[in-house]
Amino acid sequence: MFKSLRPSDITLYLILLAIVLGFGLGHYKPSVALKIGFLGDVFLNALFMLVVPLVVASMVTGIARLRNLKELGSLGTRTLVYYLSTTAISVIIGIILVNIIQPGKGVPRVQDVHPEAAYRIQPTPLRGGSVLHLVDDDDRFYGTEYNSRFVIELLDQNVCGIIDETSCIGEKDIPVSYWIDDRGKKVEPETEGFGVQIKLAEREFSFLSVLIGLIPKNIFTAMANNNILPLILFSLVFGGILTTLGDKGKTVIDLFEGLNEAFLKFIRLLMYFAPLGILGLVAARLGRAELTSEGGFMVEITRMAKYFVTVLTGLLIHSVFVLAVILLVFGKRKVWPYLTNTSPALLTAFSTASSSATLPVTIECIVDKNKVSQRTAGFVLPLGATINMDGTALYEAVAAIFIAQVYQIPLSFSAQVIIFLTATLAAIGAAGIPEAGLVTMVIVLNAVGLPTEGIAMILAIDWLLDRCRTTVNVWGDSVGSAVIDYWEGKI
Ligand code: ASP
User: Fold this and answer.
1) What are 84-104's pLDDT values in tens digits?
2) Fewer CB atoms inside 10 Å of the end CB: C or N, the chain?
3) Which of 473, 475, 478 has most ligand 1 atoms within 8 Å of CB, for mutation?
């Protein structure tokens, strides 16, 4: 039996084993699990390192294979039609399920609040700002859990600290850039007191700024920030121009084709390290959740079981029925082999919670193993990793309606239609990075006047749901490339 196993099969089984081991270790030995988290960081860094070069190389190569502008128009239109229709279907599934299951009925509101915790604030003159040290009796507080998405409120002083995520210090410390009062004015708080609450920072999100950001002042800054959309646009125009330059353009296109091959090979090599990296990622994340949730993570999941099951059922229906049928009917592909060939990408998506970080693996699986043409995959996959997020859209709609149910705010039919539209837009606007959906969910909540602090309730288990929805996001892109490739090939 083992003779017939290919190296890629062995890697796949090892990745599966790593996920199971990671869960076991994170659950039973959380502090050991945290110690091997560095393996995950190394793997994640390596993936991110390859995203920018691979996006540019595969996009330029893909576009250069188009014969004229009309072909680009047809490829672009089909891609958008596929993205929008599948995202819309997934949101509808979510809305139907959350209305049937009603997971928020009877759930008490929870906040990330530590009223008894004593705190001390020390200025950090070299860095600027200060650091808040917390003495938390029930030991649930981990400063490293929070990044700049959060603010910390001193309950006894009504002052909020803006967290400075660039200078992570210790488990019980939070670095703060500056403090503001309830009118947004900078203040210096008392240095000792009792009671803190962690809240999600209110973020302005506008599609106009996303649109303006499509054209960066400096393409290298966009690369350094892993800002994919401007790179896609740049590569699209650049690849198009190369095709008009005759022989000179051909030389450059050949160079990019070579680069593309080289990066794909890089990914294939990196996948040998994937089982270890994935073990580190899964173990450390669950370990952290075990240590920070009251009574352990299992208690947290049980408390939110109905909500968790609602999102999960929706994701399953969408991926197992809707996307699989689309793959079969419109992509003319057998689902099982296509799925097995894509599974390294799906498992990487589950482990990293990032469509962007997974993109190199997705491209490798879809082009190398599933034999989708480079021309289609080079365009559909990078774009899909940034704007096509079926899982995120479904989750945003479910989460928003769940929050309304907990707060006992009735939602009319038209309010649910607005949720449908904004969840679709919010998913398009979400970046392909961990928990980006949480940030853009503010759009959905604001659109129908739901309290944004409701997000606090779903925070504790969001990291796990994030992994599930990211897997569906990547599956949606993968199915899309087969469908669009077939469609294009027929014409
Ligand atoms: N983590 C997701 C992704 O990268 C986005 C999200 O839903 O937060 O696809």
Assistant:
1) 999 999 999 999 999 999 998
2) N
3) 473
Decide: 52 in ligand 1 pocket, CB within 6 A: no
**How many A from CA of 472 to the centre of ligand 1?**
10
What pLDDT sits at residue 147? 65
- Which position has the higher pLDDT, 310 or 216? 310
Closest ligand 1 atom to 392 CA: 7
Decide if pLDDT at 128 tops 80: no
Chain position carrying tokens 């390192």: 49
DSSP letter for 153, please.
E
User: Which residue in this structure is represented by tokens 């796990």?
Assistant: 464
- Pocket-testing residue among 389, 455, 471, 478, ligand 1, by greatest number of atoms within 8 A of Cβ: 389
Ligand 1 mean position, distance from CA 463 (Å): 10
* Mean pLDDT along residues 135-164: 74
Q: Where in the chain is the domain with CATH 1.10.3860.10?
A: 2-107+220-490
Architecture in CATH for domain 2-107+220-490: Orthogonal Bundle (1.10)
Return the pLDDT at 388: 94
Q: What is the DSSP letter of 396?
A: H
Q: Which helix (H) or strand (E) holds 194?
A: strand 192-200
